[in-house]
Design goal:
Layout lengths: L4 E4 L8 E7 L3 H6 L17 E6 L5 E10 L10 E7 L2 H13 L3 E2 L4 H8 L5 H12 L3 H11 L2 H25 L7 H22 L2 H9 L1 E7 L5 H9 L17 E7 L2 E7 L9 H15 L3 E7 L10 H4 L3 E7 L15 E2 L8 H11 L4 H5 L7 H22 L4 H19 L6 H9 L5
Parallel strand pairs: 1-6, 7-9, 7-10, 10-11, 11-12
Antiparallel strand pairs: 1-2, 2-5, 3-4, 4-5, 8-9
Helix pairs in contact: 4-5, 6-7, 6-15, 6-16, 7-14, 14-15
Length: 447
């Protein structure tokens, strides 16, 4: 990229330090224009913080800063890069940035530094995506998965799959180059076994899609039940602070209240909903409608009931619809009504806190959140990866079918190329010219 760009790299607001990043071929020259006479950023020791000042066009000081230079390609973006640590006030950082822009530097777009790092070969697409995953991680497990992806683990695994397909395609291409040679039964069977093995590896990655979604978005957990069953009290108890208004008046909660809880490393998106009942109140009717909408999109339903009262309403299997579901019988500190004596669920008291640890364990068990299921998922694909893998899977299944039917090698080759392209999109590596090099390196074609 020929332009030089700059942006504030720290969140807006007051703080001790603000960071502004500059990257591009003219980074050192343009920044030097903003320094006092005789100060040349290009001559500063690389990777050492240098105390200096940013001055305006008239030489008047804008701020005293620490300036660190990184020469490309030994930088995050692979380009000449300057990081400017200034005082952290909103006005100060904006003035320093504006001075840089006045010198001829352009404003960086969203994610542009990571995009430049990818374009310059400093990271693949999966690593670039992991940068955002790491920033937005809400739990230790999500952060660990992001770190593994940032180290290139998903890129390496997808690349290994692509290279295996490449090797199979090279064999098939060899038969295309020698039309008098048909793919014999033994060779066809060997290729078929290799295709099945690749398919298993793709399936293994696809199985992490749900874990990836949950690590990034959280488990949509809807707290559902009748008015005054203790839904808002349960939300407050799980969070550890008063987030929702609690009152004996029915219909207090009229809109959904959403917060995130870290449960054994998994983000749980708790959604408190309006109590389900018939009402003449127009506003409460809207709240009930939103409750039903939330119920439709829930991953987990915590159905809260008042254990001291007889059964009035209860979700049946059709309403649960295959979603994770836990019955939460509240007010276990009081005498339980006989209607609930045989009910299987978690007994809690939102007043005393009794049973809350057991409820957490029940949630973990319901979601299969043990170390065996989640602790080893260092690779957790996102929706884009899932789409690419499904395309590759479909292409390989089609290639298997074509191979079994004894069709021409040309058709198999096309399907294998489609599979390679789909896998290559995961890490951003798509180069059809590689196939020719693979053929010549693996086979003695001209012998």
């Amino acid at each position: 990229m020929e332009t030089t760009v700059a942006a504030i790299a720290t969140p807006p607001g007051m703080g001790a330090v603000g960071m502004i990043r500059v990257s591009g071929p003219e980074a050192f020259i343009r920044v030097s224009d903003c320094l006092p006479d005789g100060h040349d950023a290009g001559s500063f020791p690389e990777r050492y913080a240098k105390l200096t000042r940013i001055v305006d066009a008239d030489g008047e000081p804008v701020d005293e800063v620490l300036l660190t230079c990184f020469q490309g390609p030994r930088s995050y973006t692979g380009e000449d890069t300057v990081e400017i640590a200034c005082h952290g006030g909103v006005l100060v950082t904006r003035r320093v940035l504006q001075r840089l822009l006045d010198s001829g530097i352009e404003t960086a777009g969203a994610g542009e530094f990571s995009q430049r790092a990818f374009m310059n070969g400093k990271m693949d697409l999966t690593q670039a995506e992991a940068v955002m995953d790491l920033i937005s991680a809400q739990t230790e497990l999500a952060m660990r998965a992001a770190h593994e992806q940032l180290k290139g683990r998903l890129g390496h695994e997808s690349e290994a799959i692509r290279e295996e397909i490449l090797g199979i395609a090279a064999h098939v291409e060899a038969y295309i180059d020698f039309p008098e040679e048909d793919i014999d039964a033994d060779t066809g069977a060997a290729l078929l076994e290799r295709l099945k093995l690749v398919g298993k590896n793709i399936t293994k990655l696809l199985q992490t899609a749900e874990q990836g979604r949950i690590l990034r978005e959280g488990v949509r957990t809807v707290i559902f039940g009748s008015p005054n069953a203790g839904k808002s009290s349960l939300l407050n108890r799980l969070l550890g602070y008063e987030r929702a208004i609690v009152s004996d008046v029915e219909g207090t909660t009229r809109d959904t209240v959403e917060e995130v809880l870290n449960l054994q490393g998994i983000p749980i998106r708790l959604i408190d909903t309006a109590g389900m009942r018939e009402s003449e109140d127009v506003v409460e009717q809207q709240g009930v409608k939103r409750t039903r909408d939330q119920l439709e999109s829930a991953d987990l339903i915590l159905e809260v009931v008042d254990g001291t009262q007889p059964v009035v309403t209860h979700l049946d299997q059709e309403e649960i619809g295959g979603r994770h579901h836990i019955l939460v019988v509240n007010k276990c500190d009081l005498a339980e009504h006989p209607d609930w004596s045989s009910a299987v669920g978690a007994r809690i008291s939102c007043v005393t806190g009794e049973g809350l640890e057991g409820l957490s364990d029940a949630i973990a068990h319901e979601l299969s959140m043990g170390a065996g299921e989640w602790g080893g998922h260092a690779v957790a694909i996102n929706a884009r990866h899932q789409t690419c893998l499904k395309r590759a899977q479909a292409a390989l299944e089609s290639a298997e079918k074509t191979l079994q039917e004894g069709a021409g090698a040309e058709f198999i080759s096309i399907e294998l190329r489609d599979g390679m392209d789909a896998i290559g999109e995961i890490a951003g590596r798509i180069d059809t010219e590689e196939l020719l090099g693979e053929i010549f390196s693996s086979f003695c074609i001209g012998k």
